[in-house]
Amino acid sequence: MEESVRWTVKVSKETDIALRTYLAQAGMRRGDLSKFIEEAVRWRVLEQTASAVKARTSSMASEQLQSIVDDAVAKVRAGLSASTRGADGSRAKPSARKAGKRRSR
User: Fold this and answer.
1) Which of 9, 21, 32, 67 could cross-link to 28 by cystine, CB 3.0-4.6 Å?
2) 2 falls within a domain
3) Residue 98 falls inside a structural domain
């Protein structure tokens, strides 16, 4: 975790026992409770976000939605390409790891 923030939360005794039993059976330790909760929250936020996007786009024609997705992907790819270029516009040199994987002729 990067910078941590302390939460105070209340859950039912049943939830507490079920979760701690699960963590113990999975071989996790006490500190793993925070990791488990963070992962569960991230998954839930992703799920809620995806559901909201699906609801907003449900009446949209598939061609229109595909066009929006294609435009977004192109913009991201263009940004990634620009970020791999040096100040002089030249492409960054491949890392030694990538260079090592090239086949010799």
Assistant:
1) 32
2) no
3) no
Q: Does residue 29 lie within any of the structural domains?
A: yes
Q: What is the pLDDT of residues 72-99, one digit of tens each?
A: 999 999 998 887 766 665 665 555 445 5
Q: Which residues pair with 85 in a beta bridge?
A: 91
DSSP helix/strand/coil, 91: strand
**Residue 41: both structure tokens together:** 């929250």
Nearest CA to 28 among 39, 44, 43? 39
Q: What is the pLDDT of residue 105?
A: 44
Please identify which residue in the block is written with the tokens 């910078």: 3
CB-CB contact of 39 with 28 (8 Å): no
Q: How many domains does the chain have?
A: 1
Query: Is there a contact between 45 and 38 (Cβ–Cβ < 8 Å)?
Result: no
| Domain hosting residue 77, numbered range | 13-85
Within 1-105, residue ranges assigned H as helices are: 13-25, 32-57, 62-83, 96-100
